[in-house]
Specification:
Elements (H helix, E strand, L loop, with lengths): L1 E3 L2 H13 L5 E6 L5 H11 L4 E6 L19 H10 L4 E3 L3 H4 L18 H4 L3 H16 L3 E5 L3 H13 L5 E5 L19 H18 L4 H13 L7 E9 L13 E11 L2 E11 L12
Parallel strand pairs: 1-4, 2-3, 2-5, 3-4, 5-6
Antiparallel strand pairs: 7-8, 8-9
Helix pairs in contact: 6-7, 8-9
Length: 293
């Protein structure tokens, strides 16, 4: 495994993959603090191509002024050990000054899809995500890139950017990996106390209840029943619980039929957590005696 800490070293190593005939490069972008969910992404990447490239970079552009950029975990040696164990070929560990040179002016704007939900709660967040992802795509030149479905809005924004900017890369969503208690794996879970962790599972429980409902109204009611139980807990502050179209992230009506995406976000203690679930609402059955068209 090659670890490149400078862009010049990375470019040389990336060229080496081409010269070795390893043409199908699969890329996994991370902010480090790698957990079992990242391992699954890397394993899926390994099965999809000739070489796996991973980036480890805590991107300052996607953090707001009052968010946790400074305390975000950065266990680099542990992360590199995970990459080695999972058979990664090349790891890029750039510095902020390398990726964002002095006087930088140009950024990607996420547009409407990046302005709702997480984009509304964290203004500029998805602009920062897309800016760094585009830079990384230009450096890595992957044929395929994997992103976790836990960050569903991020995945949708990246896919929209690829479509709108005619980028030659296939962006694939990988299923969310969960703890035994249902909590979605996140690098921020380490900040939760045992009591906060118990509250945090309300997010996944609400999604589970919604997923077995057969109408939008019933799904919303089932999720709200769970979330209402913790809304007065001092350590739990719900940001949103929304049901949207998976592609546009616009709110769906009560009579919606077909695929939908339910997303939840909350602050638990000092930690902000997100989760989501894909739902599918069937058409209502025909009433007795109704004629077919």
């Amino acid at each position: 495994m090659i670890v490149a800490h400078t862009l010049s070293d990375f470019r040389k190593a990336r060229l080496g993959l081409d010269r070795a005939g390893r043409r199908r490069v699969v890329f996994v972008a991370t902010m480090g603090a790698l957990h079992a969910g990242h391992r699954e992404l890397i394993r899926s990447a390994r099965s999809r191509g000739d070489a796996v490239v991973v980036s480890i970079f805590v991107n300052p552009l996607q953090f707001g002024p009052n968010e946790d950029y400074a305390r975000y975990p950065r266990p680099l040696e542990d992360d590199l050990a995970v990459c080695e164990e999972e058979g990664v070929d090349l790891v890029l560990v750039p510095t902020v000054s390398d990726l964002y040179p002095a006087g930088r002016q140009v950024s990607v704007v996420a547009g409407t899809i990046g302005s709702v939900l997480e984009g509304s709660s964290r203004p500029g967040h998805f602009d920062g995500v897309l800016t760094v992802v585009l830079k990384l795509f230009n450096l890595v030149r992957p044929q395929v890139s994997l992103f976790g479905q836990k960050d569903a809005q991020q995945l949708a924004c990246v896919q929209r950017m690829v479509l709108d900017l005619n980028l030659d890369v296939e962006v694939v969503g990988a299923p969310t990996v969960r703890e035994p208690d249902g909590l979605a794996l996140s690098s921020r879970n380490v900040f939760l106390t045992p009591a906060e962790r118990s509250l945090a599972t309300s997010l996944s429980t609400a999604l589970e209840k919604a997923a077995v409902a057969d109408t939008v109204v019933a799904a919303r009611a089932a999720a709200n029943e769970v979330l209402d139980r913790v809304q007065f807990e001092p350590a739990f502050e719900l940001d949103y619980a929304a049901m949207v179209h998976p592609a546009s992230f616009t709110e769906i009506p009560d009579d919606h039929v077909g695929p939908a995406l339910m997303l939840v976000a909350a602050r638990v203690g000092t930690t902000r957590l997100i989760d989501n679930a894909y739902l599918d609402f069937p058409a209502p059955p025909h009433e007795h005696g109704e004629a077919f068209a």
